[in-house]
Structure formats: structure tokens, C-alpha cells
Amino acid sequence: MTRLRRKALVALFLFTLFIFGTMMGLRTLKPSDGFSDLAPGMDFIGERSDKRRLEVKDVAVSPVHLHMGSSDTKVVFTKSDRDYSIFYDVHIFYYLWYGSPSVDNKYIHWDHVLVPHWDPKIAASHAQGRHTPPDDIAGSFYPELGPYSSRDPNVLESHMSQIEAAAAGVLVLSWYPPGVADDHGEPTEDLVPAVMDAAHRHGIKVAFHIQPYKGRTDQSMHDNIRYIIDKYGKHGAFYRFRSSTGKVLPLFYIYDSYLISPESWAELLTTKGSHSIRGTHYDGVFVALIVEERHKHNILASGFDGMYTYFASNGFSFGSSHQNWDAIKAFCDANNLMFIPSVGPGYIDTAVRPWNNHNTRNRVNGRYYETSLQAALSVRPDIVTITSFNQWHEGTQIEKAVPKKTTARLYLDYQPNQPNHYLELTRQWAENFNKEKDKWLM
Predict the structure, then answer these.
(1) Average per-residue pLDDT in the chain?
(2) pTM, full prediction
(3) Per residue, what are the HEC states of the chain?
């Protein structure tokens, strides 16, 4: 009798453990109600820093042959064994801030500091200091290319090949003005021509993701837009979007747009603004970041053309919560704005913010990503953005990652899947997105 009781207790314990593990995994597939215990003001966010058009003559990809598909949002590559497409309504966020000793004489960003919590009491209970590459990098996954330099031509070529394999047609480049960088990096604007040349070789277009910087105003943004269009507007990889009105204009994503008041933005983005770019050579499609619900009204008043959500952590913000996308899309439709949802494979930034584990979203072998992609497609957007190709600090990357274990660290990886698992998932969903869009138009 005692033996039977012991077996029953062991079985009950194992069953309870199984249920707990299952719930911990599946919880990431459900939307949260909001910000959890993030501090007011969202200081954490502030640190982070051709829909209808393709001109085949602009795309130089050899030795493959290009031809137009049934939709003018894609280009089809013909190789000896197969046809495949990349899609200009799938945009992917890309970062240029990495450095390594072999190219830059030091590590940049891979040695990122551990950001302290704003509450000293919470900060005191977490690790401090900075990472020490190559074995200890500022990320929870380890790149197949190792802690690379964004300036390495071989790295750029590998990245463009991976993005092409993922079928994402537009690389959205994190951009700072010349001589300006994020708080933990160095200026990278001089590298933009190399990125655009590499993208061009793969038929990929480049859009700009303008980051916040000290002194960013509507006036400085006017200068930034002029600079980008004057310097890169004639490049074959420069992305332009054809609107429903038939206008073909550059498209810009503006990160942390809420840091500038709607009144100031209106001076730049409305026709009656004191230094309006509307109707000029520097006009464009300007997409603002929606974080809080009130931002949608501010975005409308500012004169923006649309809004995007960026964050890959479902439930982290109002904008990034899948359950709110129907309402946001309805608001945009009613006000002639674009809604561009952002999806990601997961989220884990505890390698740089050790106190932020409550915003972690487990990948669940790709199921979190697929749930996010399905949520995006359900609102019938014109464009879907992917967060991200290579934001390793926040664990949102779809770039190839490999298993890695050191004496001090065990990195996460994509197993039991291959290093290219999320590239393949992205291609599958990009193809599905375009098939669905064909149905929407019928």
C-alpha cells in the first residue's frame, strides 16, 4: 500500500511539473493587458534606440534573371533550378552598430553595458558592468558569424543573402545623422553607401529608420530628410512607395516620434506648416511609432501618413499588443492612414536589461512568430514589418544563430531547428501574405 501511495505521489508530481512547464511556454502566445510593471514614462523605450512599385532596371542581380510576378509588389528571380520571389511589402529592421577588433580595433555593442534599473533598490539586486566578447556577448543568442563588424564586406554580403532568402524586399536601416550615434556605439552613416550597394546586388530596397538623437527637432528632421534624399535618392536600392493616390514617394519610419510634439511635427508634415515639405522635392511617406493609445490621435494631428508598432513583445505596449490591432487599423482606415504592424520571433533583453524578464516572450520553436504573423495578416495591412534581422541585444533577430556554451554562459539557440529556421519561416509567411493580398483585391 505504501509503495502504491509513493508511486501515486511521484506521478502526481510529474504531472504537475508537466502542466507548469506547458503553461509557461504557452503563456507567450497570449496577449498581455499592457505594460506590467514598467515604470511610468517608459524610460526603457527611449534608450533604443515598394508597396506598388518595382523598376526592374534598378535591380542588378547577376547571374540570375529577373521578371515581374503577378503582383507589382515583388520581383521574381529565376535560377537554373527554380523561381523564387522577394516581396517589397515585407520590411525588416536592420542595425549597423556592431564592431569587432579585426575591423574596428575593438568590440562595439557586443560589449554593451548592463543597463541599471531606474529604481536604485531594484538596480542593486541585479548584475552590473559590461560584457566581455567574444565568449560573453550582449545577447541571449549567439550569431553564426560570431561577434562581427557591420563594416566587414563579407558580413554585409552574408546578411543580404539571408534577407533575400527570407524574401524580405525592404531593409529598414537604423539611421543617425553624420557624426551622431546611439549612447553605446559610434557613428555609422559613412557605412550606408556600402549597405545600399550590397542590398542592390540582391534586389533589396533600403528605407530609413530615423532614430532619436540629442537635439532632434522638426527643423533638424527637415535637414535629415533633405540629406537622405539628396545623397541616396538616385541610388538603385533607394525605396519608394506608391500610394493609393498614385504618388511614388520615399518612405521613412520615425522611431520615438512621440518625443516631438504634434504641433512641431505639423510645421513639417502639414501643407500649412512653416517649413512644410508637402508637395516639395522632399515630400515622403512618414510613419510614426504608436506606443500608447493616445498616440494615434497625436499622429493624426502631426500630419503623419501612418503608424507602426515596432516592439516584438506582445503586450508590452498598447501598439504592440495584437489584441489592439483591429482597433488601430479601423482608426487608420477612418483617417486615411496606413497601419503597419510589426512582428517578431520572440523577445529577451535580459543580457542588457537583467531586470526586464517580465517582458520576455519565448520563441516556442517558431510558434510565437507564427502567431504574431497571423495576427498581422488578420488586419489586412499593406505592409508588414519584422523586428528584427539583427537586434541581438533584445533577442528579436531572425539572423542565423548557433548553439554556444562557455564556462560562464549557455546561450539560447534555435534547436531542434536549423540556424536558418526563422529565415525559412519568414519566407513561408511572406509568400502567404502575398497570396492573401491577391484574394483581398478580388
Answers:
(1) 87
(2) 0.85
(3) CHHHHHHHHHHHHHHHHHHHHHHHHHHHHCCCCCCCCCCCCCHHHHHCCCCCCCCHHHCCCCCCEEEECCCCCEEEEECCCCEEEEEEEEEEEECCCCECHHHHCCCECCCCECCCCCCHHHHCCCCCCECCCCCCCCCCEEECCCCCCCCCHHHHHHHHHHHHHCCEEEEEEEECCCCCCCCCCCCCHHHHHHHHHHHHHCCCEEEEEECCCCCCCHHHHHHHHHHHHHHHCCCCCECEEECCCCCEEEEEEECCHHHCCHHHHHHHHCCCCCCCCCCCCCCCEEEEECCCCCHHHHHHHHCCCEEECCCCCCCCCCCCCHHHHHHHHHHHHHCCCEEECEECCCECCCCCCCCCHHHCECCHHHHHHHHHHHHHHHCCCCCEEECCCCCHHHCCCCCCEECCECCCCECECCCCCCCCHHHHHHHHHHHHHHHHHHHHCC
